[in-house]
Specification:
heterodimer; A: 422 residues; alpha/beta; five-stranded mixed sheet; 12% strand; disordered N terminus; B: 69 residues; alpha+beta; two-stranded antiparallel ribbon; 2 helices; globular
């Protein structure tokens, strides 16, 4: 794992041991006994910071806290380190490098919401991450550092397992399935009590905001999308790895931190349920609103560089196939629609399109969009639509029967996340 | 204002809703119901409630207001 210089930034590079962590940052600023207004003050601080979740949906952390508080005390803070995006390493790296920062964030939210338990979810198979967190949890318990019990649990390693309702359900019942929640302002529950699920990186930001204030957080990034974020850069680059950037950094500058091996043909932004971005839009700021305006999404912090020798349609077909296979299998449009879309795209990339293929594919995309209990199918639809847009010249050529000259090029995509941390 | 809400997890593509309420429900190519999310005209309220009641999977909710309780 290549790491950039981190001194300018916030998240990485903190001491991994508890003594070093406290020496560098001071103890976690939890309320003292009898501090009646602390929870309200903390909620106001979070609101003033403008922190949005870093797990993909970009939901305001302050709103989530309000919802969790409405469920009453006795709940669980679920630390989401599932990182189901195969191209993402950021949460694994963060937890290996700075586990106490993430755990401190969870403790602060536990104090603010009256939760009685912090549950860290690290998927099966990612043993290096789990043991780093377990070591940190052990240090904290031995030092009686924090009041709320912390534990590590190991859900299955699937793309949809980290969706927040699926994660809460797994903690409750061992079944990793997203729930149909038309009204997101209803708190998630584990049994009778509330569950507040946060991405690991989001919690690290919370821990820093509590120590240095909202203004310090807002000093980086954009007014409407403040702070820094971690981005995993991979693909046709010489130095793949995790970088910390300010929100609003131009996409191409993020890619360049990993040193592309040549001029990129396109960038895959936001993860495998994200979107392709064409060179004309490489200067787009990495921020929610700017990306939405070009049909992309900030999603989870992922940038994959497609080199000149790659086939965007073939890579997209592989992504569509992968996403189809990662469906939780609950909703018909996702179960039947995603494989059909992947088939269409594969035939198109191979130059085996029938006359109706592009129209059929467009119709299927419209049929699947927005029709799952979770956003998994929507991400796949957005990815494929972006491919048809960004690789439109290839679509025309392939639909006319010309297979891609790069169709046998080795895929630059990773389909299994390997938590490599130095 | 009435809206139809279909729980995609519960739905098993029986398709009765599209027969009972063709004005508001169409089926995708795999037989799963699609609603366009627009409010239902008041004259369809009876048919909508019947579609909800007759759904073998109890996957349909008729809501008074989008996002309401």
């Amino acid at each position: 794992m290549t790491l950039p210089a981190t001194d300018r930034y916030r998240l990485l590079g903190h001491p991994a041991d508890l003594a070093g962590h406290v020496a560098a940052l001071g103890p976690v600023p939890l309320p003292s006994a009898g501090a009646h207004r602390w929870s309200d003050d903390f909620a106001a601080l979070l609101d003033a910071s403008g922190l949005a979740g870093r797990g993909g949906a970009g939901f305001p952390a302050a709103v989530k806290l309000t919802t969790a508080r409405s469920a009453g005390p006795g709940g669980t803070i679920v630390v989401n380190a599932m990182e189901g995006e195969p191209a993402s390493d950021k949460d694994a790296l963060l937890l290996v490098r700075s586990p106490h920062l993430v755990l401190d964030g969870a403790q602060l939210l536990a104090a603010a919401s009256g939760a009685r338990c912090v549950t860290v979810c690290v998927p099966e198979g990612r043993d290096q991450v789990a043991s780093a967190v377990a070591r940190a949890v052990g240090e904290r318990a031995a030092a009686r550092y924090v009041p709320v019990a912390e534990r590590v649990v190991r859900p299955p390693d699937r793309f949809t397992a980290g969706e927040e309702s699926a994660l809460a359900r797994w903690v409750e019942s061992g079944r990793s399935l997203p729930s149909f929640r038309p009204d997101k302002s209803t708190p998630l529950r584990i049994g009778r009590h509330g569950a507040l699920v946060h991405n690991a990186e989001t919690l690290a930001h919370v821990a820093l905001i509590a120590r240095t204030g909202a203004e310090d957080f807002r000093a980086r990034g954009l007014a409407e999308d403040p702070g820094t974020c971690l981005v995993t850069v991979s693909g046709a680059v010489a130095h793949p790895g995790v970088v910390e950037v300010e929100r609003g950094t131009p996409l191409i500058d993020i890619a360049q931190r990993a040193v592309p091996t040549g001029p990129p043909q396109a960038l895959l932004v936001g993860g495998y349920g994200g979107a392709w971005v064409a060179p004309a839009q490489f200067a787009t700021p990495y921020a929610s609103l700017s990306l939405r305006a070009i049909g992309a999404t900030a999603g989870v912090g992922v940038v994959v560089v497609l080199g000149q020798d790659g086939c965007g349609l073939m890579e997209s077909a592989r992504l569509a196939r992968y996403l189809a296979g990662q469906s939780a299998g609950q909703c018909g449009p996702c179960v039947y629609g995603l494989p059909a879309i992947a088939d269409d795209l594969t035939r198109l990339a191979r130059g085996q399109a029938d006359r109706d293929l592009v129209d059929r594919l467009e119709r299927r995309l419209a049929q699947v969009d927005g029709r799952g209990a979770c956003r998994h199918p929507d991400g796949a639809v957005n990815l494929v639509r972006s491919a048809l847009r960004v690789f439109a010249a290839d679509v025309r050529a392939h639909a006319a029967g010309t297979p891609c000259r790069h169709r046998d090029a080795r895929s630059r995509l990773r389909f299994r996340s390997v938590a490599r941390a130095a | 204002m009435l809206r139809l809400l279909i729980d995609p997890v519960a739905c098993d593509a029986y398709g009765y809703c599209a027969e009972l309420l063709p004005e508001a429900v169409s089926l995708d190519e795999w037989g799963y119901p699609m609603v366009d999310g627009r409010p239902l005209p008041p004259e369809l309220a009876g048919a909508a409630r019947r579609a909800a009641r007759d759904c073998p999977r109890r996957a349909i909710t008729v809501r008074e207001r989008a996002g309401g309780h």
